[in-house]
Write a structure and sequence with these properties.
Blueprint: H1 2-21, H2 31-40, H3 46-61, H4 65-91, H5 97-117, H6 120-155
Helix pairs in contact: 3-4, 4-5
Length: about 160
């Protein structure tokens, strides 16, 4: 009788410990699945890009109607310019250093014109928000970099 009770107790302990070891796994998508989803997305027109960016900045910085109109014109001009640069990039060499310089110059021009549209207080708020986003982006990159390092260690 003691042997049967001991065997049942041991069986229950072993079964209980195996259930304790399993943890729910995240249902993550494979990288290829994410890429295929991106390809299926509808490309937005420069007008759509400009409108979304203008609305976001208008809410974030509490712009008046005249500032919003000027910002919309600026964003539309930049979106059209970027679309033209991307089309040019698609045709040519993928590693053209001039392309990067052109994009940076366009962004610098946009930023200078934005500074003319906004008040000093609004521009300071915009810069603070941008710095927060940069820090968050950098933190995410470092986190992902750390995860890659852990995966490489596990594989070794």
């Amino acid at each position: 009788m003691k042997k049967i009770i001991a065997a049942l107790a041991l069986g229950i302990l072993v079964t209980g410990s195996t259930f304790a070891q399993t943890s729910p796994q995240k249902e993550g998508k494979h990288r290829a699945e994410h890429r295929s989803e991106r390809k299926d997305k509808v490309k937005k027109s420069p007008e759509d890009h400009a409108k979304l960016k203008t609305e976001k900045l208008s809410k974030q910085l509490d712009l008046n109607s005249s500032q919003t109109k000027r910002l919309m014109a600026l964003n539309l001009k930049q979106a059209q310019e970027m679309q033209a640069m991307r089309a040019q990039h698609q045709k040519g060499d993928k590693r053209n250093p001039q392309h990067r310089k052109q994009m940076q110059a366009a962004h610098t021009r946009w930023n200078a014109e934005l500074k003319d549209i906004l008040t000093k207080k609004q521009y300071a708020q915009y810069e603070a928000t941008r710095e927060e986003q940069r820090a968050k982006h950098q933190q995410g990159r470092e986190h992902r970099k750390g995860q890659r390092g852990e995966k490489l260690e596990r594989q070794s």
